[in-house]
Design a protein that fits this description.
105 residues, YefM-like fold, 5 helices, 14% strand
């Protein structure tokens, strides 16, 4: 559910709007004169977004197509293919990153 508040609500009831943002974990869209203007996020939500963006940028730098990998994993799952454990995947990722960064040196 998209949360929308007028800028006057933010100005007049900051503590309430901030509390909603923190308690729901959702962004709040702030309008100005009835039009979308800004988005309010809690610090925790912003940090999560930054972490995800950094991970996506790393994948892009390493040449990994995330959507392609997700689609392939979903296909394997639907076909009943035995999936790798979390530990195995993390080990493979660490090895891939190590090899990729050592090639750059």
């Amino acid at each position: 559910m998209t949360l929308i508040k007028a800028s006057s609500s933010l100005r007049n009831n900051y503590k309430e709007v901030s509390s909603i943002c923190h308690n729901t974990g959702q962004p709040i869209h702030i309008t100005l004169n009835g039009e979308g203007d800004t988005v309010l996020l809690s610090n925790d939500m912003y940090a999560q977004i930054e972490e995800k963006l950094a991970l996506l940028e790393l994948y892009e730098t390493l040449g990994v197509d995330v959507l392609e990998k997700i689609a392939a994993a979903e296909t394997q799952h639907l076909e009943g293919t035995e999936l790798s454990s979390h530990e195995d995947v993390m080990d493979e990722m660490r090895q891939f990153i190590t090899e990729s960064t050592s090639e750059d040196e």
